[in-house]
């Protein structure tokens, strides 16, 4: 049985996407795949059993029905943290190992999902590095591009894990950075002993969010064209500039929500007529009747929020970079990205499949 730990250099790096992509690919090839997420930070109750929300979702996608408490033996709650920081952290690795052995019975491969980064959980002895060593698993580490890549982190992990680290996946690479990754960073990492298993390009759909979900996350409300709250937002554009300058930027960002003050009816009208996915009006200011009417006629939702434009823009940036993979269309797209970007033959050989 091959055990593959999927970790990352930071949280929200695409672990679920890669786990589901790997699992679906291996299942399609006829392998009996098991799944475990040893440490979870999103407690959920399934019937009378406690588990992790992300783990439950991945199980559903992979068609698995193992006991949630066995899949995620360690649940990080506020009480758990208080006990751990107070020096009352019991042996957590033993139940992880016992459940891993139980879940792996009859499996060809076990996919073990990390939580946070490879060092998250160090305070209570359940960090990714420790889990990999204890379970005797192989590790693949995802590094998501966010302004830059964490190549130093990957090099240090290779030194610490040795042959147990079978490689890295570079995720969410924008087109403008792809040449540098392929010509400089990938060769550098491989000289350091870090096999680059795949380079996954940035895909706007993977960071997209529905208008209704966006309104909820922003703490706002949809005040117009609510029936079209299923429309998808891929990015955002701030409409604080003059109309002429705004139009230039708007033409290049067609699937962007427009964040604009509730009193800027000129920019609002241009955005509506240009078929933006939605308007986000800041300052808790209602638009005038003309804007509301055009919104309904053109079926473009308007979200109204209390905060100022700068605050909303910062929150939008965080939301779009950390939005969970939940929609069927995004799961399919993510699985396709993983399947087409990762060297599966090398991965299977290195993992012992």
Provide structural commentary.
Helix content is 44%, strand content 21%. The protein is built from 15 helices and 17 strands. Strand 14, helix 10 (243-252) and strand 15 (256-261) form a beta-alpha-beta unit. Helix 1 runs parallel beside helix 2, helix 1 packs across helix 14 and helix 10 (243-252) runs parallel beside helix 11 (265-273). The protein is globular, with a radius of gyration of 23 Å. It starts with a strand and ends with a helix. The relative contact order is 0.14. The model has no long low-confidence stretch (mean pLDDT 92).
Characterize this entry briefly.
By secondary structure, the chain is α/β, with parallel strands linked by helices.
> How many H/I helices?
15
Helical proportion, percent range: 40-55%
Provide the β-strand percentage band: 15-25%
What's the N-to-C terminus distance? 8 Å
What is the global morphology? globular
Average pLDDT number: 92
By secondary-structure content and strand pairing, the structural class works out as: alpha/beta
What Rg, in angstroms, do the CA atoms define? 23 Å
The major beta sheet can be summarized as: 6 strands, parallel
How many runs of DSSP E, i.e. beta strands?
Answer: 17
Strand order across the largest sheet: 2-7-1-8-9-10
Q: Low-confidence parts, pLDDT < 50 over ≥5 residues? A: none
């Amino acid at each position: 049985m091959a055990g593959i730990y999927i970790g990352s250099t930071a949280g929200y790096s695409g672990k679920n996407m890669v786990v589901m992509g790997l699992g679906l690919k291996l299942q399609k090839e006829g392998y009996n795949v098991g799944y475990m997420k040893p440490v979870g930070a999103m407690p959920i109750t399934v019937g009378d059993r406690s588990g992790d929300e992300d783990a439950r979702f991945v199980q559903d996608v992979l068609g698995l029905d193992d006991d949630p408490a066995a899949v995620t033996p360690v649940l990080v709650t506020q009480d758990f943290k208080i006990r751990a920081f107070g020096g009352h952290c019991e042996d957590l690795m033993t139940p992880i190992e016992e459940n891993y052995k139980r879940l792996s019975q009859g499996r060809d491969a076990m996919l073990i999902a990390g939580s946070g980064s490879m060092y998250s959980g160090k305070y209570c002895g359940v960090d990714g590095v420790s889990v990999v060593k204890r379970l005797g698993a192989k590790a693949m580490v995802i590094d998501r591009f966010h302004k830059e890549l964490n190549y130093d982190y990957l090099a240090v992990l290779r030194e610490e894990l040795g042959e147990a680290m079978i490689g890295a996946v570079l995720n969410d690479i924008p087109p403008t950075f792809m040449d540098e990754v392929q010509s400089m960073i990938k060769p550098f990492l491989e000289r350091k002993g870090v096999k680059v298993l795949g380079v996954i390009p940035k895909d706007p759909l993977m960071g997209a969010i529905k208008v209704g979900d966006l309104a909820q996350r922003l703490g706002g409300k949809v005040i117009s064209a609510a029936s079209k709250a299923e429309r998808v937002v891929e990015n955002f554009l701030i409409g604080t500039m003059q109309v002429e300058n705004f139009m230039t930027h708007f033409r290049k960002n067609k699937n962007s929500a427009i964040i604009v003050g509730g009193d800027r009816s000129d920019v609002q009208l241009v955005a509506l007529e240009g078929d933006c996915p939605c308007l986000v009006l800041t300052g808790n200011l209602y638009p005038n009747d003309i804007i509301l009417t055009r919104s309904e006629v053109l079926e473009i939702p308007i979200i109204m929020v209390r905060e100022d434009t700068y605050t909303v823009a910062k929150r939008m940036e965080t939301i779009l970079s950390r939005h969970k993979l939940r929609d069927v269309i995004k799961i399919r797209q993510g699985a396709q990205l993983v399947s087409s970007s990762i060297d599966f033959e090398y991965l299977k050989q290195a993992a012992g499949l």
